[in-house]
Write a structure and sequence with these properties.
The chain contains 13 helices and eight strands. The protein is α/β, with parallel strands linked by helices and 369 residues long. Strands 1-8-5-4-2-3 form a six-stranded parallel beta sheet, with helices on both faces. Helix 3 (70-78) packs across helix 4 and helix 6 (160-182) runs parallel beside helix 10 (270-284). Residues 8-152 form the Alcohol dehydrogenase iron-type/glycerol dehydrogenase GldA domain.
C-alpha cells in the first residue's frame, strides 16, 4: 500500500488574523457562503462579514443548526448555490459541515476555528452524525481546506475547558498513530503513514506535555503567550496532520462507541470523551501502569475525565458497555488499525480496566474531585 500525506493548502495563525479574512478569502472566491452558529455570529462572524465586504467579497449569512448531519448539509447547500467559496466559523461540527457543503457545491472552503478544541480544521474529512447526534460515518473529500485561519486572540477568549478538550483530542494523536503504524493500518489520508505524519504526531504530544499546563493557565487569563500559541498549533495543525496522515486507532473508535448511549455523557465535549477513549486504548494495548499514569496525571491537571464516573457513566450497565463496544468495533472503524483482532468483549474489559487504573491512581495521589 502507498504512503500518503495530505494537508490544507495554507495555514495562517496569529493574533487578529480574522481582521485580514477578506484579504485571504478573495484569492479563493468572491461570493462566500458564511456558516456559523448564533453564538459565533456575535463573537466573530459579523466581524468577518464586514471584513469580506471591505475586500469586495459578497457573502450570504447562514446560521448553523448544531448537528453535522446529512439533512443539515443539504439544507445549507441549498442556500449557497451561487457561492464560489464556503467559510465555516466556529467549532468542530460547524467546520465539518462547512467542508461537506463546499464538497456538495464543488467550491473552495475556508475554515476559521474560534476554539482550539478539536483537530477538525485542517482535515480533508468530516464526521457525520444523525440528526439525533449518533455517529454515522466519516465523509472523505478529494482535498483538504484551501485555507485555515486561526486567530489566537479569539481562541484566548474561549473558555479554558475548550482548550483542555483540544489538548485531549491532540493527545490521542500519537497514541493512535503509533498503534496504527504498528498494525500497518490505513490512515484517513487513504494509505499508510508517512515518516512526516509520524514525526508530526510525535511532535504534537511533545509540545502538549511541555506547554499544555502553561497554555491552560494563559487561557484562564485570556492572554496569548508563546505557550498558548504553541498549544493552539499543536491542537489544530500538528494534531490535524498527525491524525490524518499518521492514523487513527482505538481512542476515537471508543468515542464513536459512546454515541450509542443516551444521557449525560453527551454533555461532554468531543475531546473529553476522547481522553477517556485514549486511556481505554492504552489498556487494550497492555501498556505499563507507569505509562498510563503519566496520561492520567496530565489529564487530571487539566480537569479532564479519567473514570466512568467522570464521563457521567458511574452506574453504567454491562449491557450499555456492550453497546459501546459493538459500535466501536463495527466494520470500518479505526480500532481495526491496531495490531491483531480487537473484539467487543476486549473493549468492554479495557473500559473497565481504564476506569480501575484511574481510580487507583486518584487514590494513590489523594486526588479530590
Amino acid at each position: 500500500m502507498e504512503k500518503v500525506f495530505t494537508s490544507p493548502s495554507r495555514y495562517v495563525q496569529g493574533k487578529d488574523v480574522l481582521l485580514k479574512a477578506g484579504e485571504y478569502v478573495k484569492k479563493i472566491g468572491d461570493n462566500a457562503l458564511v456558516l456559523a452558529d448564533d453564538f459565533v455570529w456575535d463573537l466573530a462572524g459579523n466581524t468577518v462579514l464586514d471584513n469580506l465586504e471591505n475586500a469586495g467579497v459578497k457573502s450570504t449569512k447562514v446560521v448553523f443548526g448544531g448537528e453535522a448531519s446529512t439533512e443539515e448539509i443539504q439544507r445549507i447547500a441549498g442556500e449557497g448555490k451561487d457561492s464560489n467559496v464556503v467559510i465555516g466559523i466556529g467549532g468542530g461540527k460547524t467546520l465539518d459541515t462547512a467542508k461537506a457543503v463546499a464538497d456538495e457545491l464543488q467550491v473552495g472552503v475556508v475554515i476559521m476555528p474560534t476554539t482550539a478544541s478539536t483537530d477538525a480544521p485542517t482535515s480533508g474529512l468530516s464526521v457525520i452524525y444523525s440528526a439525533e447526534g449518533t455517529f454515522e460515518s466519516y465523509k472523505f473529500y478529494d482535498k483538504n481546506p484551501d485555507l485555515v485561519l486561526v486567530d489566537t486572540k479569539i481562541i484566548a477568549q474561549a473558555p479554558p475547558r475548550f482548550l483542555a478538550s483540544g489538548i485531549a483530542d491532540a493527545m490521542a494523536t500519537w497514541v493512535e498513530a503509533r498503534a496504527s503504524i504498528e498494525g500497518r493500518g490505513t490512515t484517513m489520508a487513504g494509505g499508510q503513514a508517512t515518516l512526516a505524519g509520524q514525526a508530526i504526531a510525535q511532535k504534537a504530544e511533545e509540545v502538549l506535555f511541555e506547554y499544555g499546563l502553561l497554555a491552560y493557565e494563559s487561557n484562564k487569563r485570556k492572554i496569548v503567550t508563546p505557550a498558548l500559541d504553541a498549544v493552539i498549533e499543536a491542537n489544530t495543525l500538528l494534531s490535524g496532520l498527525g491524525f490524518e496522515s499518521g492514523g487513527l486507532a482505538g481512542a476515537h473508535a471508543i468515542h464513536n462507541g459512546f454515541t450509542a448511549l443516551h444521557g449525560d455523557i453527551h454533555s461532554l465535549t468531543h475531546g473529553e470523551k476522547v481522553a477517556f477513549g485514549t486511556l481505554v486504548q492504552l489498556a487494550l494495548e497492555d501498556r505499563t501502569l507507569d505509562e498510563i499514569n503519566t496520561y492520567v496525571d496530565f489529564y487530571l491537571a487539566l480537569g479532564l475525565p479519567v473514570t466512568l464516573e467522570d464521563i457521567k457513566l458511574k452506574d453504567v450497565s454491562d449491557e450499555d458497555l456492550q453497546k459501546v463496544a459493538e459500535q466501536a468495533v463495527q466494520e470500518g472503524e479505526s480500532i481495526h488499525n491496531m495490531p491483531g483482532v480487537v473484539t467487543a468483549d476486549q473493549v468492554v474489559d479495557a473500559i473497565k480496566a481504564a476506569d480501575a487504573y484511574s481510580k487507583a491512581y486518584k487514590e494513590t495521589i489523594g486526588f479530590e474531585d
